[in-house]
Request: fold
Amino acid sequence: MKARHIIALWFVLGALYLVIESIWRGWTHVSMLVVGGICGLAIGAVNQIPSFYETKMIWQSITVAAIILCVEFGSGCVINLWWGWGIWDYSGVWGNIMGQICLPFAALWVLITPFAIWAEDTARWSIYDWYTRRQLDPGKPPKYAPYSLRSVYKELFTGR
Reply:
């Protein structure tokens, strides 16, 4: 992928993270565009490894949730603790680490990550396809996503 593809992917995935957080919490902060974009790119990087995407969805979900928690913990330490912005604080939630991540949200991320994997794959595929079509054949109609979100959750819940 070229730099412009990566920047477009980072922005699209970061914006999606903003939308999800706004729906969940009722508000968000612009810094989450950066954090969400980093999470999305990290998910994409690991998802390009054949041994990763060939494993069962539950293990992919656990792995991606761990990546997201690491990014959130690191960014939370900088944004909330070092800079003092106080965007989130889980210190009152059971199983928290320094108030930046907690076990209940870790479990929630395991359920959300199939969507994150699908969104990253679909965004990567769409952005690359869009740039490629624009260069090779501007009149060519758009293609559809390579697989459905439903199929990803089916894999998660059936253990495939």
Notes: The chain has six helices and two strands. The chain has a mean pLDDT of 89. Residues 103-136 form the longest helix (34 residues).
